Structure formats: C-alpha cells, structure tokens
C-alpha cells in the first residue's frame, strides 16, 4: 500500500476526541476502498496492521 500524507487516525482522535458517526463512516469507507479485491478463491491476501 502507498503511504499518504496526513494525520494518523490516532492523532486525529487524540486532538479532536471521538468522531461524528458520518466522519467515522467516511474513514471506514476509505479503508475498505483501499483494500485489494477478493481473490477468486474467496480469501483475502491483504493484511492490515497498526503502525508500530
């Protein structure tokens, strides 16, 4: 995956507190759109993990 410029979700939450439901859904949509499509075997080859 490519890295993009911007604040991490952790930093946004620390600065602003909980997200409004509409904003949380927009973040989730962006994450889901960034995942590769499923393979024909029905399993995903992508792994997501938080930064260390």
SSE order and pairing:
Layout: H1 9-16, H2 21-34
State the secondary-structure class.
mainly alpha
H and E string: HH
Strand % is: under 5%
The biggest beta sheet reads:
none
Q: What helical percentage do the residues reach?
A: 40-55%
Beta strands, count: 0
- Low-pLDDT stretches are none
Helical stretch count?
2
Q: How widely separated are the two ends?
A: 16 Å
Description:
- The protein has 52 residues and is mainly α.
- It has a domain at 7-35.
- The chain is built from 2 helices and no strands.
- The protein has helices at residues 9-16, 21-34.
- The longest helix has 14 residues, at 21-34.
- The chain is extended.
- The protein starts with 8 loop residues before the first helix and ends in an 18-residue tail after the last helix.
- The relative contact order is 0.12.
Keywords:
single chain; 52 residues; mainly alpha; 2 helices; extended
Short description:
This protein is mainly α and 52 residues long. The chain is 42% helix and 0% strand.
